[in-house]
From TrEMBL:
Family according to the record: Belongs to the ATPase A chain family.
Organism for this UniProt entry: Sinibotia pulchra
Residue stretches spanning the membrane: 12-31, 69-89, 101-118, 138-159, 171-199, 205-223
GO molecular function, one term: proton-transporting ATP synthase activity, rotational mechanism
Name recorded for this polypeptide: ATP synthase subunit a
Lineage of source species: Eukaryota, Metazoa, Chordata, Craniata, Vertebrata
NCBIfam families from the UniProt entry: ATP_synt_6_or_A
Annotated keywords: ATP synthesis, CF(0), Hydrogen ion transport, Ion transport, Membrane, Mitochondrion, Mitochondrion inner membrane, Transmembrane, Transmembrane helix, Transport
Amino acid sequence: MAMSFFDQFASPSYLGIPLIAIAIALPWVLFPAPSSRWISNRLITLQGWLINRFVNQLMLPLNVAGHKWALLLASLMVFLITINMLGLLPYTFTPTTQLSLNMGFAVPLWLATVIIGMRNQPTVALGHLLPEGTPIPLIPVLIIIETISLFIRPLALGVRLTANLTAGHLLIQLIATAVFVLLPMMPTVAILTATVLFLLTLLEVAVAMIQAYVFVLLLSLYLQENV
């Protein structure tokens, strides 16, 4: 039983062919296509307004050079939210519970921010490794610590997203299993447990959106240090 709880995180396959590519590509089909008409429907108008507000908030602390990342970060935000939300539906697979996928997003984007900083302003980029006013005896130790913290950033991005979604899915499955077990024996307790399950599902919807926002927000903060 303990192992079956983790079967939901195994990448599905059909005839030996992994289906994670379909799970990643399918959300793009659900996005409404922009219209050439001046007046769009309510869904496209709401989507455009939300993306516009998000981009404005995200690009506010960045200078003009960082605004080139607006399309990439907004697309990543919408993509992660869609995948996380679809993963809460029954009989679906959440690709963002795979650490390899999240690291595949985190490492290249983090590395791009570091390369931009080293190319455009190497003195400022390297200056982040040594805080101003550091005593001379502590300089080697702080440089090592700051370098390690720099290379831990992409790992923290990927692990944070994976751990939060994995923990939420496990909690939902555990409480749902408890509801089915308790229903024939103690219906009152089962109803109370089902209420907790409903509230936890609402919490997981919020977590799915918040974690996607945090992932993109941290990337923008890393970009802010290097532009």
